Request: fold
Amino acid sequence: MASPRDIRKLALLALYQLDSRAGDDAEAIRESLDDVLTLEEEGLSFSDIKLDFTAGERDKAFALASKAYAHREIADVELNELSVDWTVTRMPVVDRSILRMAHYEMTAMPDSKPKAAVNEAVELAKAFSTKNSPGFVNGILDKVLKRVLAKANAATE
Reply:
């Protein structure tokens, strides 16, 4: 059974591909998630090296990526507003993908835990991006988190 972090890693891989291909060839991108051994050989490590994702887990990862990609215009508006000196189009594709996925989880998934989404995004940045990326990702998502929590508090009053 795959951990939520492993599913996010697969989702990040799919979202990166969707972004790089401008959303084209979604079926081929989904199929690319089927070969975990090749993914391991290419450096994508999972919590259990013998992990064999179920079709449902691969579908869940692809669904998360697809929904985050569809949500990208909404995410990009807020990310551009909150990012100092870096427009979304200037960000490395990996960082942009991580931010978009976390933004989607924090703002559009009703059962999500926003703080957990921030932590997971930082861990993905540590694993797959530059040495400065975890701080960059954390800084932007912390601002998103404050907005999400303020909105939730206002809704309960």
Remarks:
- Residues 1-70 form one domain.
- The chain has two domains: 1-70, 71-157.
